[in-house]
Amino acid sequence: MKTDTSAPATLSLKPVKPKRISDQVFEQLRELIYRGKLKPGEKIMTERELTQLLNVSRTTVRDAIQRLVAMGLVVQKQGQGTFVGKYDAGPKNPIIRAIEDQNTSLEDLLEVRMGLECNAAALAAMRADESDIEAMKQAILDMEKEVRLKRLGNEEDASFHMAIAYASKNPLHILIMRNFHDYLLHGIRENLISLYEKPDNIDTILNQHKAILQAITSREADKAYKAMQAHIMFVLEFFGKRTTTA
């Protein structure tokens, strides 16, 4: 009896395509921008410097840069260099324009964050790699250092939330959060100015961030979701009480 050695009809496999070197350069630079390591308006290294650092050809670097330009992640200025794109309310960023057109309040912002970031925390618990976890840990350490020096630590706070977004591994979610980041940073700053009028709130916020990180590190998606929900709800209720007593 003849044995059928052919692959099952239901098995769908595609040829594996090796990544182009320019793709790898593009992904590294995009990751630095998404993680907030390269900030809006910041000048990035020259093509020559990137060529030497990454040990690739200038053509490879140029191809990666052009892809970033096409996405609006970087802009090239004649005679000045290449810069990380700034967030704006123009046609390239309809999210920000819509927010401004609606005269959005901090409470509105926090309600949107509730939906975006609780889901991101749950996804991060399932998908975060070691570099994601390390980025979150570092953001908390940096934030704690800043607040102990009597500074707001709002950029470090925002970096923590962006690290979670990146750890979701959902490219659309990351892109939405990046476009949302300018208002996220503004909202966090305004929140912290008011929250930190009461010193006890500093430790509360730090502990909430640590609880979120712990749940993500432990790979407990439901717990991560609830920890983020508790954090944002705490801030939302704080502002609700302030509005009521004002």
Q: What report would you give on this structure?
A:
This protein is mainly alpha-helical and 246 residues long. It has 2 domains: 21-84, Winged helix-like DNA-binding domain superfamily/Winged helix DNA-binding domain (Arc Repressor Mutant, subunit A, Orthogonal Bundle), CATH 1.10.10; 94-245, GntR ligand-binding domain-like (Four Helix Bundle (Hemerythrin (Met), subunit A)). Helix content is 67%, strand content 3%. It has 10 helices and 2 strands; from the N terminus they run H-H-H-E-E-H-H-H-H-H-H-H. The protein has helices at 21-34, 47-54, 58-70, 94-101, 106-127, 130-148, 154-167, 171-195, 200-217, 221-245; strands at residues 74-77, 81-84. The protein has a two-stranded antiparallel ribbon with strand order 1-2. A hairpin with a 3-residue loop joins strand 1 (74-77) and strand 2 (81-84). Helix 5 (106-127) packs antiparallel against helix 10. It is globular. The termini are far apart. Mean pLDDT is 81; it is low at 242-246.
